[in-house]
Amino acid sequence: MTNSKKHIMSFLVTGAMLVSTASAAIAAAHPAIGTWKLNLAKSTDESNDALPKSETFVFTDSPEGVSLSTRIVGADGKLAVTKGKPVKWDGTAHPETGGPDHDHITVKPVGAQTIEWAMTKNGALVRSGTLTVSRDGKMMTVSGASVTADGGKTYFNNVFDRK
Predict the structure, then answer these.
(1) Going by C-beta distance under 8 Å and a sequence separation of 6 or more, which residues neighbour residue 63?
(2) pLDDT string in tens for the chain (163-residue length)
(3) Which CATH number is 95's domain given?
(4) Number of domains in the chain
(5) Which residue range(s) make up the domain with 33?
(6) What's the whole-model pTM score?
């Protein structure tokens, strides 16, 4: 898989993880609901993956939970669009089929503006971090670490602006 495809997949997996952990009751008040555009100038990624040209997340709330739609233009110019199924937020591990690198997602709220999340594959941690929305609701930061094949970690800090 090319670096550009890996980076797109990483963003898709992260987005799917974030969506698959939100319940309608908590998410209705969660400030992440809405449309977010990646601010490449403010974002960092230690991996060797090429950064996308653009990325948009749209979190929507429904009685079934929260869903995430993504629109990513990769470094290679290819467009990847996804629409996740709504999932309720309850802080326990849930089976997830949104990406090849994980099979379960766990998310828990840790305040009005922040959630913690973790993805596992066959019980082993593969990615974890936080999603935090600024107090003024204009910026969302998704930060964390991915576990490399040799057991090391690469860190990322992705900043999104509300649209």
Answers:
(1) 24
(2) 554 445 544 554 455 445 444 444 444 468 999 999 999 999 999 988 888 999 999 988 878 777 778 999 999 999 999 887 666 678 888 787 777 788 887 878 888 999 898 889 999 999 999 999 999 999 999 999 999 888 899 999 999 999 9
(3) 2.40.128.20
(4) 1
(5) 3-162
(6) 0.79
